[in-house]
Structures are given as C-alpha cells and as structure tokens.
Amino acid sequence: MRRRLFAWEEEMVGEFILLLASVTLQVNREDKWLSTLKNSNTFTVRSLYDFLTIQLQVELPVDVSSIWHRDVPLKVVVFAWRLFRDRLPTKDNLLRRGVINHDSRTCVAGCDFVESSSHLFLHCNIFGSVWHLIYS
Amino acid sequence: MLSAQYGTDEGRLRGGGCEASEWWRVVHNLSRESWFNDHVSRWVGNGKTTLFWSDVWCGRVSFRVRFSRLFELSIFKGESVFEMLQLGWGEGGEHGG
Q: What is the DSSP letter of B32?
C-alpha cells in the first residue's frame, strides 16, 4: 500500500532531484579515491604520517634527536625514544591503558611509590642509585 | 576477494565481528575515524563502484545522512551511483508514487 508523500518529503525530493540533475557520469572513467592531503590528490603513507605527526608534536625539555645515531643499536634508541615520550610500559602507564588495576601500580622495587618513568629512572632509591654507580 | 571473505551489507564490506581478523577490524574502523575520513574523497567517473546512498560522493555528507527520510523510503539501498542513474529519478525509480 502506497501513500502520498508528505509535503516536507515532497520538498526534500524536489531538492534531491535538482541536485541529481547536475550529476553526469563519465562512462570511460573508473571511480576512485582521492586524498586531499596533497595537491596531486594521490595518497601516500608519508603525507598521512606527516599530517598526524605535525598535530601531535610534543615539546620536549631536551633535544632528543641526537638519540638517532647509527652506532647505537636500534632497540636502545627505540627504548630511549619511548622513555622521553613516557611511552614505556611502566605501571602508571599500564594502569592508564587498563592492563593492571589500581592496587598493583606501585614500584616493582617495593618502595611504595607509584611506578612512573621518572620515579623508576631517577627518584627510586633502589634503581635511581644506579646513576651514582655510573658517575662514581 | 574481500567481499567473499567478509561479506557485504547494503553493498558495503562488512567490518566483521569476532570472526574477522584483528587486522581487518583495524582497517575497517579507519572509515569511522575523522582524521582519516576527512582527507579522502570519492571521485565519481562511471559510478559503478560508488555506493549511491552510503558513500560521500556529492556534497560533504552521504545522501543517506542528508536525505535520510528518502533513504528510509527507498527500496534500493545498496545500489551504485551508476545503477541508480539507470533506474531514473522519477516513477518506478527510487521513490514510487
């Protein structure tokens, strides 16, 4: 059973038909995706990467670009890079990511502080003392 | 190949529930991310691989969103732009009267 369209529906149909009247297809051309990130409209992973990283640039207190050195093993560089951006799986980060619960967020050394990267690498009485050994 | 693997809903590839791989779900979810979606657009040539209602190919939103009431009424929901143009816009087309 069909009913007549309501007035507002008719109006919408009118607008729709007007819009569609302007559409012409090009028989010999395939539909395609365009990327609007580059003037050439071609998609590259690089252009998307650049777009994302420009937005997410974090100001760091020190210049850490020097860690990217060819003599340093990659795993060490990546570890340092994650440390400077606080992306290591320290317990405070694991808690934020929902991996562990609130009760198990204290330092693995048993010092009752929250295990953050600054605690673990600088202020912890157990692990922080490694620095003194290095400098002495 | 992708449609054989994952199936389609109204002409669109399915994102898959638990049976799809983790990778496919991540790729599929890209289409809902504005940081990705806002920077791709559909260029229509012959209209054969662009979905009339669901793809954004004319204007800034899909017809499905912009003319949602007409989409509800339409009996052709998964057709391509090409197929819809073949059907025509009037009687016997996407809105019978």
A: G
What pLDDT sits at residue B18?
A: 65
Nearest of B31, B12, B83, A24 to residue B74 by alpha carbon:
B83
Q: Which residues of B touch A4 (CB under 8 A)?
A: 97
* CA separation for the pair B79, B12 (Å, rounded): 10
Q: Distance between CA atoms of A109 and A117, rounded to whole angstroms? A: 13
The answer to whether the beta carbons of residues A93 and A87 sit under 8 Å apart is: yes
Cross-chain residue pair B40–A34, CB shorter than 8 Å? yes
Q: Which residues on chain B are in Cβ contact (under 8 Å) with A31?
A: 42-50, 57, 81
Calculate how close chain A gets to B67, using CA atoms only, in Å: 7
Model pTM greater than 0.80? no
- The ipTM of this complex is 0.70
The answer to whether the CB atoms of A25 and B49 lie below 8 A apart is: no
Tell whether A35 lies on the interface with B, counting CB pairs under 8 A: yes
**pLDDT tens digits, residue range A36-93?**
888 788 888 888 888 888 876 667 767 777 788 889 999 999 999 899 889 999 999 9
**CB-based contact B70 A19, cutoff 8 Å:** no
Q: Across the interface, which of A13, A32, A52 has its CB nearest the CB of B43?
A: A32
